[in-house]
Structure formats: structure tokens, C-alpha cells
Amino acid sequence: xxxxxxxxxxxxxxxxxxxxxxxxxxxxxxxxxxxxxxxxxxxxxxxxxxxxxxxxxxxxxxxxxxxxxxxxxxxxxxxxxxxxxxxxxxxxxxxxxxxxxxxxxxxxxxxxx
Length: 113
Description:
By secondary structure, this protein is α+β, with helices and mostly antiparallel strands. It has a single domain, classed as 2-Layer Sandwich (Protein Inhibitor Of Neuronal Nitric Oxide Synthase), CATH 3.30.740. It has helices at 15-31, 37-52, and strands at 6-11, 56-61, 65-71, 76-80, 83-89, 97-103. α1 crosses α2. The longest helix is centred in the first third of the chain and has 17 residues, at 15-31. The chain is globular. This is Dynein light chain. Its main location: cytoplasm.
């Protein structure tokens, strides 16, 4: 389990939803090995689908890139210690959607703010 507090890098989510997503991330980290990114991502996606309806996506790891389209108000990119979380609701069928490009580069011994 990672003990650190979540640090939001980018988001367009309401604060209440951000808090819920980070709470779910911590629950996932408690329930699964830190190295099991697929299970952590699946846990978060499944819980968000139950709470906020289907079409949520969850990407977890420390070395990934992405280009996504998401429904406005459903995007958050944050980290807990060295683990990165990209969470969003699919926006392909919604009139109000945005495209985001996220590139995570694993840095050795260098934290960016």
C-alpha cells in the first residue's frame, strides 16, 4: 500500500468527485499489491461505474502515455507517491467533450511540482 496523499496534477472534476476518486484509489491500493496496476485500475473503474454510471476508464502506473477524449467534468490525473492515476468518463458520444494528451515520464530522483 502507498501511504502518501494524492496530488492532483490536472482535473476538471468537481471537488467532491475528486475526493471520491482519490478515496477509491486508496481503497484499491489497500486491496491489491502496488505492482498489480491492472487490478487497481479495474477496482476503480468498477466502483465509479456503480456510483456514477457506466463508461469510466482508469489507467494506473508510472510509465504511460495517453490521448483521450472525455466527458467534461469527469477528468482527473493525479499521483499517490510514485503511482500515477488517469481517470475519466468516455466522452465519444457526448456533445461536451474534451481531448487531453497526458504523457507520464518516469523520473529518477526528481519530483516535479
